[in-house]
Amino acid sequence: MAELLIKNGFVYDPINGINREKMDVSVKDGKVVDKLSGKRKKIVDATGMIVMPGGVDIHSHIAGPKVNAGRLLRPEDHYKDVEPKTEKTRAGVGRSVPSTFTTGYRYARMGYTTVMEPAMPPLMARHVHEELNDTPMIDKAAFPLLNDCWFVLEPLQKGMIEDAAAYVAWTMEATRGYAIKLVNPGGLEAWGFGRNVRNIDDTVPHFGITPKEIIQGLCKVNKLLHLPHTIHVHTNNLGKPGNYETCLETMKCVENLANNDKPVMHVTHCQFSSFKGSDWRTFESGADEIAKYVNNHSHVTTDIGQVVFTDTTTMTADGPFQYILYQLSHNKWINNDVETETSAGIVPFTYKRSSFVHATQWSIGLELALLIKDPWKIYMTTDHPNAAPFIFYPKIITWLMSRTAREKLLNKVSKRARHKSLLPTIDREYTFYELAIATRAGQAKSLGLSNKGHLGVGADADIAVYNVNPEQVDPSKQYKLVRKAFKKAAYTIKDGQIVVRDGEIVKPVDGRTFWVKPELSNPKMEMSPRLKEAFEDYYTVQYENYIVPEHHLTNSHPIHIRTEV
Amino acid sequence: MFKAPVEADYLSPDSFAGKTLGEISKLPMWEGNKQRTIGELFEIEGEPTAKPEEQSIHLHGDVSRVRRIGSGMSAGEIMVFGDAGLHTGEEMKGGKITVGGNADSWLGAMMKDGTIEVKGNAGDYVGAAYRGSVKGMRGGTIIIHGNAGNELGCFMRKGLIKIYGSTAQFAGVHMRNGTIFITGSSSGRVGAEMTGGKVIVNGRLNEVLPTFLIDSLKPKVKVDGEEITGPFYMFIGDTVEEGEGKLYVSKAANPHLKFYEQFL
User: Fold this and answer.
1) What backbone phi and psi angles, to 5 degrees, belong to A12?
2) Which of A112, A126, A110, A147 minimizes the C-alpha distance to A63?
3) A73/B131 touch (CB, cutoff 8 Å), yes or no
């Protein structure tokens, strides 16, 4: 494979502590190397440009049955945003639920190279992987939803953590999953019977355990299995006023499971879990309390889930929450996946500047991002497409980097929300270094992807080059230039190949699909004989059909781990 | 007659105004799966004007397979001497379109303002919202001298649709506001799931949906400032959606609805 030299760029590589150093990056055979020996090397002139590791998105709903149902539900979302086919790319439609190919192209154009699909119903894993196979340009992985699976709830109820761990290990391999995802623990099982849980100490119907026990149990399982990522939690009571208390309790309940200051929990789209007030009238921001807690503890990481004022599609595995949203918005609603060991709901939604609640939500996201001091603890996401489609990332970057940019918008939002917002009291502006952490390094580190998110020797040569000069451009004032640069990467390099130049795809490539292959240390814990019986008793599919064979993934990339069970 | 459907995205006063004939003839236009120019598909003559509001475009010949005539136009005039294809005047914001013959479906779909007049018949979904959307016609006027098809004024929010002939099923379905006036008859299910606005059927309507409740007998009804003398049965509905839409049905043309009078 050809050699590549990225010359003279301003390099930001937070994992290796490199902050705006003018240096060259050498690439050989898809990896970053120390030096190049060959004479036939390609040169990318990055003079006056920013060089960062390729973007990593820890939480973005890009594939799976509910995303596809969202596509069906929203023809009006597609017809205004059509991408015709070109010589290099396929045709597609876009906006809030883009088609698979368009998803890949759009991420690559912004310099993103790794994206996580955070909600895979185990029974629909095959569907998820079929869509991921068709999502080009980016590396990806999917997190199976495990919190309300009977095979997890049963051993947790009996206190048999090791049995639960063995099942989770089996699921990771069977579904080709990457991390444990929890969505409204206990609530989804209850939703199967039209109910929900009220807080983390409520009892889950028919199982007699509490959401707290599920969270703690799966956190222990995660530790036993040595999974690369922590548990990935969508909290209970999400999207309800007053839920910041639930969020704090959720974070507190795994406090004593942490060791060596290592994170054990990722609270995702934290904005939706930071609501204060007793109803929508007294609704206000709980960002301050959440930020204080996260600042003082090192066992949690979070991502924002930043709202952008636009029309979008909400889709989560949190069926009961989506039902509430449907009642609020009177919009169309799909309830699905209830039979696939989880649940899901989809409701189109428009965030309006004039709405007090929406404007406050917008403010909460930015408050969290700015009040949580350590950028290694909070990452930039929109929970695509729940708070906004991912194409709005460049806009969010300007809000993080420029006080002027965010205050300009703050002056246009609901008056009541503006008066209550904490934003005017916050002076902080992200630097490019902090931005590199929030958009790639931090996320890669949290995901445990050791070859991603940095440019050290041996890292995957996933590199983004943005045409903005950090020595000349002041992001605080010239935020429009920053937005423009981050919208269309000057170069996106994937595995050592230039795939995007000036925001256009020049070489379509397939990304890898990462998954975890746990190797049990105790062969007696092997689940398959027990599961075969259970499948005969309970399931609508055969055991053999449930498992996604590895050859089903076009570019499979297993990560081997040695477990404690 | 074109062999394949033509997508006329640029056939509007807004894209013609301020250009020379040469520039206009170079505007792109798809015929089936081939990209062509307006000059290749049409012969153009006349003098373009500087502003769209002064621009008048006359289309002669068979343009019944030309789609999106006047799409998104904001001012000026288009006259079609014959039949017009699908999506004529979709999302138009102003100006006037006159069709001498018939118009195909989706006439004035999601239009915001302006006037469309059709001398012949129109297809389905006149002034409707596109699939999935809840924003139908939001202003302006559509006048059809002939008949119209199904789902006329679907998700309509404002404006006026006037039909001198009759309509097929589901006129005013999901209607939120605005006025639909049907001089002729309607084949049924008028106003299904409507929540506001008014629909007037001056001819025969075989059946009123059971989810509409009789409210009163009105001697006359106002349409766009004009008084139509009745008497009319006035129904409120659609109660399925807790709607407050008004459905007026002529008493004279519908003697079979007389039994409603006992509930007044």
Assistant:
1) -115, 115
2) A126
3) no
Please provide the average confidence, as pLDDT, over all residues in chain A.
94
Longest pairwise C-alpha distance within chain B: 69
Query: How many residues make up chain A in this entry?
Result: 565
pLDDT of residue B158: 95
Residue A338 scores a pLDDT above 90 = no
Chain A residues within 8 Å of chain B (Cβ atoms): 73-77, 79
Q: How far apart are CA A403 and CA A438, in angstroms?
A: 17
Average pLDDT over residues A277-288: 94
A75 vs B contacts (CB less than 8 Å)? 130-133
* Residue pair A5/A27 in contact by the 8 Å Cβ criterion: yes
Q: What are the chain A neighbours of B7 within 8 Å (beta carbons)? A: none
Spans of chain B, pLDDT less than 50:
none
Q: How far apart are CA A49 and CA A51, in angstroms?
A: 7
The residue in chain A having the minimum alpha-carbon distance to the alpha carbon of residue B91 is A80
Write the single-letter amino acid at B131.
R
Report the DSSP beta bridge partners of residue A18.
Answer: A13
pLDDT tens column, A143-201 = 999 998 889 999 999 999 999 999 999 999 999 999 999 999 999 999 989 899 999 99
Given pLDDT bands bounded at 50, 70 and 90, which one contains residue A1? low
Using an 8 Å Cβ cutoff, are A349 and A355 in contact?
no
Phi, psi of A239 (to 5 degrees): 75, 15
If you measure CA to CA, which chain A residue comes closest to B135? A76
Contacts of B133 in chain A (CB under 8 A): 75-76
Q: Number of A to B CB contacts under 8 A, please give it.
A: 13
In sequence order, what DSSP letters do the residues of A392-449 get, joined into one string?
A: GHHHHHHHHH-HHHHHHHHTTS-HHHHHH-SGGG------HHHHHIIIIIHHHHHHT-
Retrieve residue A548's tokens: 């996604």
The CA distance from B29 to B6, in Å, is 7
Question: Before A385, cis peptide (omega within 30)?
Answer: yes
Please write the tens of the pLDDT for every residue from A230-273: 999 999 999 999 999 999 999 999 999 987 788 999 999 999 99
Query: For the residues A520-537, what does the mean pLDDT come to?
Result: 87
Question: For chain A, what is the total number of helices (H) and then of strands (E)?
Answer: 20, 26
Amino acid B3: pLDDT:
85
- CA angle, corner A275, sides to A271 and A281, nearest 5? 135
ipTM: 0.83
How far apart CA A479 and CA A432 sit, in angstroms, is 12
Is residue A387's pLDDT more than 70? Answer: yes
Q: What is the pTM of this model?
A: 0.92
List beta partners, residue A53.
A463
Q: Where are any strands of DSSP class E within chain B? A: 6-7, 28-31, 34-37, 56-59, 66-67, 77-80, 96-99, 115-118, 138-144, 158-163, 179-182, 198-201, 213-223, 226-237, 245-250
Question: Residue B52 carries which side chain, given as an amino acid letter?
Answer: P
B130 and A76: CB-CB below 8 Å?
yes
Per DSSP, the three-state class of B3 is: coil
Q: Is a pLDDT exceeding 90 seen at residue A216?
A: yes
Residues of A with CB below 8 A from B131's CB? 75-76
Please check whether residue B131 touches A, CB under 8 A. Answer: yes
CB A401 within 8 A of CB A479: yes
The two structure tokens encoding residue A21: 């150093």
Measured between CA atoms, the residue of chain B closest to residue A75 is: B132
Residues 194-223 of B with CB under 8 A from A: none
Exposed, middle or buried by CB within 10 Å (0-12, 13-18, 19+), for A184? buried
pLDDT at residue A39 in the model: 77
Choose, out of A74, A76, A77, A311, the residue to mutate when testing the contact with B (most B CBs < 10 Å).
Answer: A76
